[in-house]
TrEMBL record:
Entries under PANTHER family matching the protein: MUTATOR FAMILY TRANSPOSASE, TRANSPOSASE FOR INSERTION SEQUENCE ELEMENT IS1081
Keyword Hydrolase included in the entry's annotation: no
Family the UniProt entry places it in: Belongs to the transposase mutator family.
Descriptive protein name: Mutator family transposase
InterPro entries xref list: Transposase_mutator
């Protein structure tokens, strides 16, 4: 309006998207929905059309954050490193169960830090022996787990 008295209820003035909308898109994407399925779901739930390019821009922004996280420098020493594997459902045409290997380090200050996540077809001890890691240690109990820098970390 001309007097500036209009106050939008859903999206505050000077914002282009409603707070939490990106989180909704990411939540649906994380559940394995395609861009078209997300678009259809949002239209059904909120009665508004959302372009595929908007959905892609939201999911692409997360991909960039993940790449930055993967390339971050790690502490030189983690006195304790936990290695584990969990099984998750992944959508690749059909829903399949895949293994996600994870390395969690405890910092010198006692904080937990995820060192890496890797997706594999199945769980097996051979995973940790592959060249993505160099495991060494001349003394008993002295184990060094080093992420190779030329190997990309996959999620």
């Amino acid at each position: 309006d001309r007097h500036g008295s209009f106050a939008p209820q859903l999206i505050p003035k000077h914002q282009t998207r409603w707070a939490g909308f990106d989180d909704k898109i990411l939540s649906l994407y994380a559940r394995g929905m395609t861009v078209r399925e997300i678009q259809s779901h949002l239209e059904e739930m909120y009665g508004t059309e959302v372009s595929p390019s908007l959905i892609s821009s939201v999911t692409d922004a997360v991909v960039e954050e993940v790449k930055a996280w993967q390339a971050r420098p790690l502490d030189p020493v983690y006195p304790i490193v936990y290695l584990d594997c969990i099984h998750v459902k992944v959508r690749e045409g059909a829903v399949r169960v895949k293994a996600v290997y994870l390395a969690i380090g405890i910092t010198m200050g006692g904080e937990k830090e995820v060192l890496g996540l890797w997706l594999a077809q199945a769980e097996g001890a051979k995973f940790w022996a592959c060249p993505r890691f160099c495991v060494t240690g001349p003394q008993a109990g002295d184990c060094h787990l080093t992420r190779r820098h030329h190997e990309p970390t996959h999620t």
